[in-house]
């Protein structure tokens, strides 16, 4: 399972690549691929289908027999995006003999973790049609979307030498505008900037490169860590580990129970608050579920009743106890790496878990024969959140927030337990299979 997660993380330097990797995995086991703007009415929901829009994916497979009167959804939600550095639309600058690319900070980045790393670039590029006939293009914009990645060490954000900042170890101050601009070359400004570089990479003319959503990624491959390889380190564990577990749970499921539509949704834009056309704050999931219900011959009233008897497992990274900072944790809630999936609770609904949904996920862990742990945030620290409460309030659906324990959340390179990915996957599969 860990090798499969490593492959998924390496295939997914950007949310767009993560969404494509999820589609590839599901179509390889027989799911059909459909578009959000196409009709879904002719699709075979029992065979399964998957829909991708940018960095977001929805996939569904229904049990062999579905009575619209008794329909329910078993939903797993996760997110494809991770905090990182993203290229500005006019990124080129040069000063003091260096050429640099301007970036914006995306999400809650641990800025220091991006210093002194060899960085590649990836994302999606809008390329102008040259002959007006290319497949997959958008006639409205006259362009097509190309997924692009470059795994060469292109960028680096160099740290200031200790001799020039003697206080660096007493609290490093990093200004997002001033200190995080990567260098990507030496020399004077020239006519060939990032656009020309990208054009070369894509084998098109520079004027054909219309726009991009491009971001930096650390080039260090995932690795097993520790005396007995009990841990693993990788970029984007939050939240590709949950995306991978969700995809594997759906791909490996024999068949959902009768009357159950097993759904996974991998949202983009969780790290910046989910308010976007493809984020958890959008109507995307509610619309998808209603359309799935229609494909299963359920009317509007039957759909709304199905939502009322459904459950969503919101899967996202959980904080394992940190051995060097025990005072940052609630003393009675100290999740351990390799301790199994963590159920996250918060009475102010930063996590959407309640007693009933908590119990449902415990039952899934028991059915999968994996242990579970419980997290509650320290009272004198603000608690993070997930797509869980957003999904619950958008849909009026019961939600449980869970995730694998991890350290270094939002670092460019995070740390997890080697056994946890298989345990989370098994618990999610048991949840999708339950009747
Ligand atoms: Zn997350």
Tell me about this structure:
With 435 residues, the chain is α/β, with parallel strands linked by helices. It folds into 2 domains: 2-82 and 235-433, Zn peptidases (Aminopeptidase), CATH 3.40.630; 84-218, Aminopeptidase i, Domain 2 (Roll), CATH 2.30.250.10. The chain contains 9 helices and 20 strands. The chain has helices at 2-11, 15-28, 194-202, 237-252, 284-295, 300-308, 355-368, 387-395, 420-433; strands at residues 32-34, 49-53, 56-62, 72-79, 84-95, 98-106, 119-128, 143-155, 183-186, 209-218, 223-225, 231-234, 260-267, 311-315, 318-319, 342-345, 373-376, 398-403, 405-407, 414-417. The strands form 4 sheets. The protein has a 9-stranded mixed sheet with strand order 1-2-3-13-4-14-18-16-17, sandwiched between helices. Strands 11-12-20-19-15 form a 5-stranded mixed sheet, with no helix packed on it. Strand 16, helix 7 (355-368) and strand 17 form a beta-alpha-beta unit. Helix 4 (237-252) crosses helix 9. It is globular. Zinc ion (ZN) binds at residues 79, 238-239, 270, 316-317.
């Amino acid at each position: 399972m860990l090798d499969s997660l490593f492959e998924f993380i390496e295939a997914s330097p950007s949310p767009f690549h993560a969404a494509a990797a999820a589609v590839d995995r599901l179509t390889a086991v027989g799911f059909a691929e459909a578009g959000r703007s196409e009709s879904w009415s002719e699709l075979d929901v029992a065979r399964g289908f998957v829909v991708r829009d940018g960095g977001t994916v929805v996939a569904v497979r229904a049990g062999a027999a579905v009575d619209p009167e008794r329909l329910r959804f078993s939903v797993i939600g996760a997110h494809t995006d991770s905090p990182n550095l993203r290229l500005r639309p006019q990124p080129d600058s040069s000063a003091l003999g260096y050429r640099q690319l301007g970036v914006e900070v995306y999400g809650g980045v641990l800025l220091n973790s991006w210093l002194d790393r060899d960085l590649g670039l990836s994302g999606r590029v809008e390329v102008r049609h040259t002959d007006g006939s290319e497949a997959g293009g958008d006639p409205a914009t006259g362009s097509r979307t190309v997924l692009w990645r470059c795994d060469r060490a292109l960028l680096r954000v160099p740290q200031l030498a200790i001799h020039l900042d003697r206080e660096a170890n007493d609290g490093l101050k990093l200004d997002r505008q001033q200190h995080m601009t990567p260098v990507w070359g030496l020399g004077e400004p020239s006519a060939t900037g990032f656009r020309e570089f990208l054009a070369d990479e894509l084998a098109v003319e520079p004027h054909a490169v219309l726009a991009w959503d491009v971001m930096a990624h650390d080039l260090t491959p995932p690795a097993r860590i520790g005396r007995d390889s009990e841990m693993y380190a990788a970029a984007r564990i939050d939240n590709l580990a949950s995306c991978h577990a969700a995809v594997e749970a759906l791909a490996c499921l024999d068949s959902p129970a009768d009357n159950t539509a097993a759904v996974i949704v991998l949202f983009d834009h969780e790290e910046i608050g989910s308010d976007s056309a493809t984020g958890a704050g959008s109507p995307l999931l509610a619309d998808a579920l209603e359309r799935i219900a229609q494909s299963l011959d359920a009317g509007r009233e039957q759909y709304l009743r199905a939502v009322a008897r459904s459950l969503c497992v919101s899967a996202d990274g959980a904080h394992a106890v940190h051995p060097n900072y025990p005072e940052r944790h609630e003393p009675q809630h100290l999740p351990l790496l390799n301790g199994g999936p963590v159920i996250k609770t918060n009475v102010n609904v930063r996590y959407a878990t309640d007693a009933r949904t908590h119990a449902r996920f415990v039952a899934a862990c028991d059915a999968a024969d994996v242990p579970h742990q419980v997290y509650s945030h320290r009272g004198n620290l603000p608690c993070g959140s997930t797509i869980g409460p957003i999904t619950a309030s958008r849909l009026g659906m019961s939600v449980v927030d869970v995730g694998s324990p991890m350290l270094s959340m939002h670092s460019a390179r995070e740390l997890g337990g080697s056994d946890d990915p298989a345990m989370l996957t098994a618990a999610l599969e048991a949840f999708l299979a339950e009747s």
